[in-house]
Amino acid sequence: MKELRYGFGDGSLVGVDLDRVVRAAEWAWQRWSAGNRVVFRCQAGLNRSGL
């Protein structure tokens, strides 16, 4: 199991390193498409939990 953590506040994405968010999403997609299980979760359960 591998865990990646990337914290950013709920709300506006101004000031968020979107390249890093995209890299995390691509990493997860590659593993998922290879047949691995992937889980995204939000620490507080707000907004991003739909990822």
Summarize the structure.
The chain has 51 residues and is an all-alpha fold. The chain has one helix and no strands.
Task: Tell me about this structure.
The protein has 51 residues and is mainly alpha-helical. The chain is 31% helix and 0% strand. The chain is globular.
Strand element count = 0
What class, by secondary structure content?
mainly alpha
User: Total number of helical segments?
Assistant: 1
What is the makeup of the main sheet?
none
Low-confidence spans: none
State the helicity in percent bands.
25-40%
Q: What series of H and E elements makes up the topology?
A: H
What average pLDDT do the residues reach? Answer: 77
Compute the separation of the termini in Å.
19 Å
* Percentage of residues in DSSP E strands: under 5%
C-alpha geometry: globular
Whole-angstrom Rg = 12 Å
Characteristic key phrases:
single chain, 51 residues, mainly alpha, globular
Which helices and strands, and how do they pair?
Layout: H1 18-33
